[in-house]
Design a protein that fits this description.
InterPro entries: UCP006557. This is DUF2111 domain-containing protein. The protein has a single domain, classed as Beta-Lactamase (2-Layer Sandwich), CATH 3.30.450.40. Helix content is 37%, strand content 27%. Strands 3-2-1-6-5-4 form a 6-stranded antiparallel beta sheet, sandwiched between helices. A hairpin with a 4-residue loop joins strand 1 and strand 2. It is an alpha+beta fold. It has 5 helices and 6 strands; from the N terminus they run αβββαβββααα.
């Protein structure tokens, strides 16, 4: 039987199937690392770095909290990211997983300015469902 397990010492090769699956679903840059070892960075279907760490991944591992921010250093400097801890069932952090935060990157106001009827359409749909 084949089984994937993640621990504090998982290598980038151990984490690669998770990164590939998430990248395949979302299609956005993915970063992942274990607590004690560097991991990988994946973009455009390709592992760009298999010895990767980043400042937000490291911060999440230290704090064991989800962090949304714009890094001031590293590969994603100036880009909104969101990174979450990978925890055991007991809450102990064993790694971190990050993505470029597309929601933070959207300029919602400009979207609504360009498509002014969308608010009316949403309201009409909500009324029909009520």
């Amino acid at each position: 039987m084949i089984c994937l397990k993640i621990c504090s010492d998982s290598t980038s090769e151990d984490l690669k199937p998770i990164a590939e699956a998430l990248h395949g679903v979302l299609g956005i840059p993915i970063t992942i690392r274990s607590k004690n070892l560097r991991g990988l960075r994946m973009e455009r279907g390709v592992v760009m770095d298999d010895n990767y760490t980043g400042p937000v991944l490291e911060e999440v591992i230290l704090t064991n909290k989800i962090i949304r921010k714009i890094p001031t250093e590293g590969v994603y400097k100036g880009k909104a990211v969101v990174v979450a801890p990978i925890r055991t069932s007991g809450g102990e952090v064993v790694g971190a997983l990050g993505v470029v935060d597309l929601v933070a990157a959207l300029d919602i106001l400009s979207v609504f300015r360009e498509y002014p009827d969308i608010v009316d359409e949403v309201e009409e749909s909500r009324k029909r469902l009520s």
